[in-house]
Amino acid sequence: MVTPRCVRKCSPSFRRRAPLPGLVGMLRAVSGGGRRLRFLLPGRAVAPPASGRLPPRPCLQRRLLQQAAPPAAPPPAVGRWLLACSGAVAGAVVLGGVTRLTESGLSMVDWHLVKEMKPPRTQQEWEAEFQKYQQFPEFKILNHDMTLTEFKFIWYMEYSHRMWGRVVGLAYILPAAYFWQKGWLSRPLKGCVLALCGLVCFQGLLGWYMVKSGLEEKPDSYDIPRVSQYRLAAHLGSALVLYSASLWTGLSLLLPRHKLPETHQLLRLRQFAHGTTAIIFLTALSGAFVAGLDAGLVYNSFPKMGDRWIPDDLLAFSPVLRNIFENPTTVQFDHRILGITSVTAVAALYLFSRKIPLPHRTRMAVTSLLAVACMQVGLGISTLLLYVPTPLAATHQSGSLVLLSVALWLMSELRRVPK
After folding, report:
1. β strands within 238-349, DSSP E
2. Are 261 and 348 spatial neighbours (Cβ–Cβ below 8 Å)?
3. Exposure b/e, 11-40, CB count within 10 A at least 16 = b
4. In 3-state terms, what secondary structure has residue 305?
5. pLDDT tens digit sequence for 171-183
6. pLDDT per residue over 227-248, tens digit each?
7. Who has the most CB within 10 Å: 56, 205, 270, 397?
8. SS3 content of the chain, % helix, strand, coil (to 5)
9. Which of 164, 168, 158, 345 is nearest to 243 (CA)?
């Protein structure tokens, strides 16, 4: 005789024989077996033991449900905030480059987090600020005939750079605290946000440490007063790391990953893109040594350096390792080689990508990378041949950020889809 459906549903023996879902099995295992757990689901009721009933454990059930559920993705506002922060860092880098090109970085001879936010207003305050500047080497050696009006220009350039840095710090810290309080940050993202906020604070301290190197008296030096190229490179390098990390994290949160087939060619393309991005980053960092030593003002010819492919004073300093970081000729030579290597790697990456079927957005990133690389090389050569005019040099420095951004975009497009 066939058992009616209603009887099968309500029969205790049938209920005990019915298979249990995986989550119920987990709850049984944690609680010590089915005889000690009463857990009711529609159509999957478990009969309580005859010896007695134990109260349910809602806290344990809720915890297991949370562990079984996938982590919720952060809202798009978090990704947009990180992209906006990366844009703010890019603005600080460009403004800092203009400050360096106009030789304005040593005009403010002290550092206060809050006090210096109020600029001089009266004539007496400006004269007092000018007198402080006159006590340092840059005025005594380089700008001894500077007027108060000229001083105001370079002071405001440095003031804008410092105030923009404070805006960048607030743009990171205040929204981070808000998102943290709202619970919108996952555990890995919290660590990333803490690292970014720490790095932006470190960046401000590193900037003042760099400026101090240009304010020190150097009686044994016959060079014009300037900041240490090592500290300048550290200041720029940390800004590039902050920019790259913010941009990468923002793109990772906002751009969906492509479900690309994991072929051998795609793996090689991904590795090629990573290596090319590293070369672009290193080329941009070497520009700090070019700016710090005014190396763009030597050998203003291309492709040769003067009349030779390799200049005679390439290894003039001793020991030889000093030439890489302190000899203007070697620094410019290295920057040329890195620039040519970058554009060659980008061109090879573009040609290799033509052999692989890629989504439209990824193809657009590869093409954009080649276009920006060619533009950046043209800007660099023009800046060199025209003896480093400020507008063109600032555009060349900004172009390095654009090139790095497009390379990071391409890396984001080629990310693996998590299993």
Report:
1. none
2. no
3. eeeeeeeeeeeeebebbbeebeebeebbbe
4. strand
5. 999 999 999 999 9
6. 999 999 999 999 999 999 999 9
7. 397
8. 70, 0, 30
9. 168
